[in-house]
Specification:
Helix content is about 20%, strand content about 25%. The chain is built from four helices and six strands. It is globular, with a radius of gyration of 13 Å.
């Protein structure tokens, strides 16, 4: 469930617990993003115990960061995309027990999650 390549990425760059900030111009969804990276345990907890993780994990989405300004949205990678795939935002209120529509619930934030390294706050 938690891909080894993401574990390596977080570990190699010591990202767990750090923040990243994307301007509206960088964020492909044009909202901008303030996020804090999850530990592996936090990611597993979010995807197995809480919405929207419960609803999207079956489609390969893995939570990797949470919105640090309080929106309730999480940021995900998708294991179907493989290493250095996109980073997505999953809107917490668009996923529930009745399912979700990808076009309403998921927005691409970055084409390649490794682009996050340019935006990590020290």
């Amino acid at each position: 469930m938690f891909p080894f390549y993401w574990h390596q990425f977080v570990d190699n760059h010591q990202l767990a617990g750090k923040s990243a900030c994307l301007s509206e111009e960088v964020d492909l969804s044009t909202l901008g993003a303030d996020m804090r990276f999850l530990t592996e345990a936090q990611s597993i907890n979010e995807s197995t115990n809480f919405w929207p993780g419960l609803g999207v994990s079956k489609d390969g989405y893995v939570p990797v960061a949470w919105c640090s300004i309080g929106s309730g949205d999480y940021y995900y990678i998708n294991t179907n995309d493989g290493q250095d795939g996109p980073l997505y935002r999953v809107y917490h209120d668009a996923v529930g027990p009745d399912g979700y529509k990808t076009e309403d619930a998921v927005a691409k934030v970055l084409n390649h999650y490794e682009e996050l390294l340019r935006h990590v706050e020290s």
